[in-house]
Amino acid sequence: MSIPFASEKHVAIAAVRRACALTDSVFNKLVKNETLTKDDKSPVTVGDYSAQAVINTILSRAFPHDPIVGEETSSDLRTSSASSLRSRITELANQALGEDLALGEMREWGIGPRQVQTEEELLDAIDRGSYGGGRSGRMWTLDPIDGTKGFLRGGQYAVCLALIIDAQVELGVIGCPNLPVDPSNPNGARGCLFVAVRGQGSQQLTLSGSSPIPLSIPAITPSNLSFLESVESAHSSHSFNSRVSKLLLVQKPPIRMDSQAKYCCLARGEGGAYLRMPTGVGYREKIWDHAPGSLLVTEAGGTITDSRGELLDFGLGRDLGENFGVIAAGKDVHDDVLAAIKQAKLEEHE
Ligand SMILES: Nc1ncnc2c1ncn2[C@@H]1O[C@H](COP(=O)(O)OS(=O)(=O)O)[C@@H](OP(=O)(O)O)[C@H]1O
Ligand SMILES: [Mg+2]
Ligand SMILES: [Mg+2]
Ligand SMILES: [Mg+2]
């Protein structure tokens, strides 16, 4: 009997690995006019666009009928003033797609030497990520660079891909080119790949191809937690987290880190809890920002809910609906964290 999602896992790992090689190489060469500002004022770089083009090209060849919910669209690239950006993206994407085949990769996925995509084909590939999401059927979520601000400052960022079937995350693959392989050696080798399949556990590999290490979140008492949280205070409330910390008698300072690398660190035993409380009304969390990370945490034995204890719903469209925050933690402390959040909210209204 074949292992469920074995081929999806192979394709997803190949796609994320190639995209990570691309983003890693682009970072040192990025020049000022290769970053745009989107309508919501957030940054997007040639790295984000070309990584989405590469992953969507591979997914569309391997699974032509699967829709993709991807963060980026090509509209800002199709203007006459963006011709140099288009050329750069075409060059970067073709370089990543054209690398020699690694063990387990197949030419049928649109990769390998002399597999060349035109500029138009790559822009169309980016736009294959325009699916609106929904409750039934298969779909992929893609965040080609999660934590673009982290990427730009040379910090943490992640290439994030998930397969969702009937609103349930079945597979998650996250590449973290800047994350130390061994958390106890922060200045040592960098470049991690995290893989989770529902019912098959979570694993860490290196981007260069080491054998997988199974992950599990160790037990911890609340006062020994060190909350994982966003770097950007606009993305999650630092002040609310610090009130929750006080209520739980947490001694250690928070670990601030961009991107879904926070979920990866939690899954391998760092911090003990990830808190992402909304900073105001209006913003809705996007499914590509949480789908692979949520499975990585649950398959490592953790729990993920919103701040009311409700499961995240990946079947509502491109976002998660009204934002009640995201709380991920080891099973044993998750209830304590939720109770402290409830208490902090009550005190907020006193
Ligand atoms: N207001 C607000 N609230 C919550 N989240 C927001 C908000 N605005 C943007 N975003 C999304 O945050 C993603 C990156 O956040 P992270 O916590 O991963 O990193 S960071 O430390 O905040 O940079 C970031 O993902 P990328 O765009 O892929 O970088 C956004 O999707
Ligand atoms: Mg993101
Ligand atoms: Mg992104
Ligand atoms: Mg973005």
TrEMBL record:
Family annotation (InterPro entries): DPNP, Inositol_monoP_metal-BS, Inositol_monoP_superfamily, Inositol_monophosphatase-like
GO molecular-function terms, A-Z: 3'(2'),5'-bisphosphate nucleotidase activity; metal ion binding
Binding site for Mg(2+): 71, 143, 145-146, 289
Obligatory cofactor(s): Mg(2+)
TM spans (from-to): none
Signal peptide bounds: none
Gene3D superfamilies xrefs: 3.40.190.80, Fructose-1,6-Bisphosphatase, subunit A, domain 1
GO biological process: sulfate assimilation
EC nos: 3.1.3.7
Reactions catalysed according to its record: 3'-phosphoadenylyl sulfate + H2O = adenosine 5'-phosphosulfate + phosphate; adenosine 2',5'-bisphosphate + H2O = AMP + phosphate; adenosine 3',5'-bisphosphate + H2O = AMP + phosphate
Key words, A-Z: Hydrolase, Magnesium, Metal-binding
Entries under Pfam families matching the protein: Inositol_P
The keyword Ligase appears for this protein: no
Family statement drawn from the similarity comment of this UniProt entry: Belongs to the inositol monophosphatase superfamily.
Protein name: 3'(2'),5'-bisphosphate nucleotidase
Phylogenetic placement of the source organism: Eukaryota, Fungi, Dikarya, Basidiomycota, Agaricomycotina
